[in-house]
Input
Amino acid sequence: MNASFDVGYHAQRKARWHYGEVAFWLIVLACGFAFPTRYLIMTDILRLALFAMSLDLILGYAGIVSLGHAAFFGVGAYAAGLLALHGIVKEPVLALIVAGLAAMVLGFATSFLVIRGVDLTRLMVTLGIALLLEALAERFSNITGGTDGLQGIEMQPIFGEIPFDMFGKTGFFYSLAVLFLLFLFARRVVHSPFGLSLRAIKNNPLRAAAVGIPVNRRLIAIYTLAAFYAGTAGALFTQTTAIASLDVFAFERSADLMLVLVIGGTGYLYGGLIGAVLFRMLQELFSTITPQYWQFWIGLVLVVIVLIGRQRLHRWALYVPNVVIKQVAGRKAVVAVPESDA
Amino acid sequence: MTSILTNLFDGVAYGMLLFVLACGLAVTLGLMNFVNLAHGAFAMAGGYVCMVLVNRMGWPFFAALPLAFVSSAAIGIALERTLYRHLYARSHLDQVLFTIGLTFMSVAAVDYIQGSSRVFINLPAALQGQFDLFGVGIGRYRLMIIVICGLLTIALQMVLAKTRFGSRLRAAVDDPRAASGLGINVPQVFAFTFAFGCGLAGLGGALSAEILGLDPYFPLKFMIYFLIVVTVGGSSSITGPFLASLLLGIGDVAGKYYVPKMGPFVIYTMMIVILIWRPNGLFGRTAAR
Output
């Protein structure tokens, strides 16, 4: 058994579907039927999950720290809104793809700026691009509606068959379908040789380049893909809420997204999904306690998470499940601590 | 012609102010390599302390300024010793998350204590209005800012270049291990520098209430400006951030005056272009550390 066989074996074993994953998606689907009165918040969680997954692709797998991921979310949101408002692309699924592609184009164009420089430059450039777009959206208020946002968006039925209802049932299952499909694709990508090469780049770009990985091209590719995901999340936002306003570009959105991913853990795709659920629950909890000052508690959560240490926290969170798995299955726990990030 | 000069003057005052606000960050971010997005929170703290002292307790403005410095420095050193210290060796992501958390907390806390509306500091009559100098309108308050900030800059440069503390700091930054081997107490030097930077931010916050506007969202609104100053200015000396501040101040004022509708683009575009052209800043060192 040589080393390359070993690596391939482990990569393949990790790529296989676990029972836990199947159970996870079944539970998500079951939620759709179990809580028919909570469609709006659940749809919100799904959108956030997709958005967080997008950040996970570049942060967890490629190690790019971005403070302006809302830029792509915003472009997707406005693109979907404008397409629906002016009746350019009436069919929602098609509009979703077009909006995602619009964000993707922006992602591709800006990726050249992002791959240059060190962490700090990346932070600045991503933040700058998001702020620039927010200023643009405010400036061209005749197109974007300025601070009022896009109003009067009417969504056509999906595939011309399934209309959006006022309880958000259609919106929920529509979002879930989109999330699941994109998750499948992301899962395929991160377990492919391409995904493995991204991890190599994250761990050590210099060594990755030395073994023949085209570092810059890979980073551009994943950044562009992540932009598509974020744009789709933004488009879902517009399509399910029928509004698009300036705050889609806000810094707070990018910062909250970081928190979502940090709560869930980076580098294993489910982090964004679990994080989105926990984050929204936390937010609900804090805003019922102190409606105006919930941001304080969100900030406190961030500070505490960092001070305790993200890895330690994830070990604690996984302690009980792992003990249960050991007892029941009698083998080493399959749920591992997510990889750390640079 | 005169409007150009007045704008230039306002831009210089604005830039000087940005320099005082951001030069603490130049040390933590540029020299100590710690991404401190909460820097604006220290500035806000100073501004609010000054506001409470002047408006509520009737202190004279010039007596409240040093106190703004001291209070922000005190908060800075308390946080440095208890929290920041543990994060120096951590990844940039951790530092970003931690300081964003602190920023959110400070925004909500100030909102809770002082309300969310913009506050003004009552200025003495001597600082209000403007006078003409060869036909150029000179705001008294802005003139004072230029004088104070100019003196501070010179003092900082002198301290860094001429004093024993300055050489210790430069040594600690260049090579912390070698410096501690020579008997320099590196953590202490860093803690002191951090506190001093926070104090300067506090002073800047107190001075900026009139020009930039002071409300609980100050740390978020101006975070990008501070970051621009440091990243564009680089970290090899105090002159880099200083020139970057002036450039940013003049660019921002001119941009808002001549192309009001394109206002924010001017600086963001400027920043992105400079960062692409020189990823380590205009005046930065060539090697990234």
